[in-house]
Amino acid sequence: MHEQREKITVDFYSEKDIDDYNRFILNRPDSTIYHTIEWKNVLEKNFRCSSFYLLSRDSEDKICAILPLFLVNNVYGKRLDSLPNSCYGGAVGDWDCVEPLLERAMELKNELKCKLLVIKQDPVKLGNFFGDFGMSCYRNWWRQIIEVKDPENMWNGIKKTNRTNIRKAKMNNLSVEMVKNEDGLKEFYQLELLNYKHLGFAPFSFEFFLYLWKQMRPKGYVEVFIARHDERAIASSLNFIFSNIVFSTYGGWDISKKCFKPNSFLDWNLLLWCYKKGYQYFDFGVTSIDNKGLFLYKSSFDTINTPYTSYFFPKDTHYFYNQNYLVKIGRRVLKKTPSCISKKLGMFLYKNFV
Q1: Which CATH number is associated with domain 2-139+310-322?
Q2: What is the 3-state secondary structure (H, E, C) of 157-191?
Q3: Which residues contact 305 (CB under 8 A, 6 or more apart)?
Q4: 87 touches 141 (CB < 8 A)
């Protein structure tokens, strides 16, 4: 271990590293769309945070591990976060190369006078090491993934009630189309606003989605789909694409049209699209362990369910992710707030309270 550590150097990402960085994450099964430089650009452009992407290099000066971090400064104080406003994050690489990155992150936390360091991380591979490093574990999510198979096998794996919902949608002549332009993105966004208001969540701005679209679609990293009934958009889904995985990331629907079962129909058609394109997995994202309804809905598609974790340092700082009383108050207020107002407040709330 000591001999290997002597060969590893740590530095910060810069634009000259982009080719090596992309080559590294594309060849690592533990990297995600959220580790891309394009997503880094989205976060820097739209949120009040600055990036510190740590790189480990081996004796041949090749990148052997990464740890993307953002400095977030809001009403809770300063923190280093991997990654804010992202489904996934954390270090990518083997532990011998990740360990010096974590040591440097601890130093950076002190240099920037941050209250805490928080790292989203799949616990299966590196979780024990993070715990041994003095970080506390806050496990409050499930990661839900579908293995893409031929349509018959996928159909047989779906729960009977959900198959009935999909058949009902077909009988009601629902259709699904891929968004090709900004007008379609605006339709997606209107459904996103309806969904966020129903749930009591602060919506992202349309400018956020437009920038994301322009930044990531030319790279083939994003596609948006809309389900329609009688030409009217009633459900939508924005999906990231990276390596052999499609990530279902943002979505909305018109709850007044729930009798048509548009979400089941849209998600089934996304699986068929994944199969045609040759993708191996469809990632439903993380689901709170408290959201049993959403967990059961995703599980009805025969998902593989694994725990997902955030790690905190110092150990007693996990309170940041556990401000339940503030969340409950905010959701009650946002449910009663007109969308024309909440969409203007959304980015302010994310920048200052998330």
Answers
A1: 3.40.630.30
A2: HCCHHHHHHHHHHHHCCCEEEECCCHHHHHHHHHH
A3: 142, 143, 144, 295, 299
A4: no
DSSP collapsed to 3 states, 256-299: HHHHHCHHHHHHHHHHHHHHHHCCCEEEEEEEECCCHHHHHHHH
Q: Which residues contact 67 (CB under 8 A, 6 or more apart)?
A: 53, 54, 82, 90, 91, 92, 98, 101, 102, 105, 119
Q: What is the pLDDT of residues 219-274, one digit of tens each?
A: 999 999 999 999 999 999 999 999 999 999 999 999 999 999 999 999 999 999 99
Q: pLDDT tens for residues 128-165?
A: 889 888 899 888 899 999 999 999 999 999 999 999 99
Task: Give the domain ranges of the chain.
Answer: 2-139+310-322
Integer Cα distance of 14 and 267 in angstroms: 38
pTM, entire model: 0.93
d(CA 265, CA 162): 9
Question: What is the pLDDT confidence band of residue 348, given thresholds at 50, 70 and 90?
Answer: confident
